[in-house]
Amino acid sequence: MHRHRQLKRTLLFLLVLFIVIFLNLPVIVTVLNSFKATTAILSETNIIPSQPTLENYERVSQQTPYWTWFKNSMIVTGGATLLCILSATLAGYALSRFRLVLLTVYSRSLLMLQTFPLILALIPLFILFRDLKLVNTYLGPILIYAVAQLPFATWMFKSFFDAIPKELEEAAVIDGCSQIKAFRLIVLPLSGPAIAAVTIFAFLFVYNEFFIANIFLRKEELMTIPVGIQMFIQQFGADWGSLMAAATLAMLPTLIFFMFVEKYIVHLAVGGAVKG
């Protein structure tokens, strides 16, 4: 019986490993090709580099403004994510705790905004932002990204705050705390998993977004990584080695970010399972 269970676990592990490798095969190929010269990428059929080299990374770091694009991505992503989290936290708490007609209208408006295609608003937004001198500035895309993520983030926070007992805040108010202080001292410390989950969704959306950044950040010194990487693709060819190296470097921030927030995601998943 013990051997049967061990064999079953081994087979299950191998199956899961195969699925993970299969689903991540494009990522694996990209990373491996980043250690090949462009000529080798186009001529070799073997995935594993026969002569690994770092020349692609040297070219990206020294001959392209990649790190300027990286800085721009961090500024835009960090600003949009922070603005979205601050706004959605307060909005979600208000929808969860207060029953006002204005808030009901606001919550229904959020649902309507969630179904509205953002691409339809880009032309009037571009005209408006051009008149406000927000084109080719960090603030323009930061505002758009934050507003685009706000409906989803607000509803996620509302659902999480609904699960926190109101009695905790009522006890704090009885002890002399104001509503805002009870929110800051009681509710927010319990909201770590929700903040982590919303941060991940907002971070990935902004960090990987191309279309809006390509419209509102036209100067090369203001381009983000998704817009800058297209510079490696020219009219009659592409520098595949540098492209693979730049794409691999672009993956690192999200990987590091997930390592820091993993414990909150696990806590959120376990908490949801226990609640269920």
Written account of the structure:
The structure is a single chain. It contains 14 helices and no strands. It is 77% helix and 0% strand. The longest helix is centred in the C-terminal third of the chain and has 36 residues. The chain starts with a helix and ends with a helix. The radius of gyration is 23 Å and the shape is flat. The protein has 276 residues and is an all-alpha fold. It folds into two domains: 42 residues; 169 residues, MetI-like fold. Helix 5 packs across helix 11 and helix 11 packs antiparallel against helix 14. The C terminus is likely disordered.
Secondary structure tally: strands: 0
**Structural class determined from secondary elements:** mainly alpha
N-end to C-end Cα span: 32 Å
Summarize the helix and strand pattern as letters. Answer: HHHHHHHHHHHHHH
Query: Tell me, what is the CATH class of the largest domain?
Result: Mainly Alpha
> By CATH's scheme, which homologous superfamily of the largest domain applies?
MetI-like
Q: Count structural domains.
A: 2
User: What's the rounded overall pLDDT mean?
Assistant: 84
What's the architecture of the largest domain, going by CATH? Orthogonal Bundle
> If helices are DSSP runs of H or I spanning 4 or more residues, what is the number of helices?
14
Poorly predicted regions? 271-276
Characterize the overall form.
flat
* CATH topology-level fold name of the largest domain: MetI-like fold
Largest sheet at a glance? none
Percent in helix: over 70%
- Gyration radius, to the nearest Å? 23 Å
Name the beta content range.
Answer: under 5%
